[in-house]
Amino acid sequence: MLAQIVETLDEMSSGLVDAKDLLLMSAEEEDQAAVDDVAAEVERLRASLEKLEFRRMFSGEMDPNNAYLDIQAGSGGTEAQDWANILLRMYLRWADKRGFDATIMELSAGEVAGIKGATVHIKGEYAFGWLRTEIGVH
């Protein structure tokens, strides 16, 4: 993993040097197509940097793993159960938008509306990393 990071940094460093040199030559020759190529290369390097930043943020031992999400309605009766259902729908949509596979493992319907509780298994790369701070009472 460390070797891959070093390799990416080396690639980015040489890519920036090459882009700078090409940009200087393009400016001298007033070659707009070459300037556009440099802009595309810089954008690709920026995307590589974002991936490295992501890996830095999600560097915990468990971060790359799948996750279980447990939602329980608190005290408050029907309103709390409705809120728990809203949270469940929100997390299911969030997982879908991120490309995760979300499976409802357990669902306990509310008495009037909403849910009493639900357990969702969210599968995908870094699902745990994204969800590890989603704790507490809402």
From TrEMBL:
SUPFAM superfamilies: Release factor. It comes from the Bacteria. One of its GO terms (biological process) is translational termination. Residues 24-134 form the Peptide chain release factor domain. It holds the Pfam family PCRF. InterPro entries: PCRF, Pep_chain_release_fac_I_sf. This is Peptide chain release factor 2.
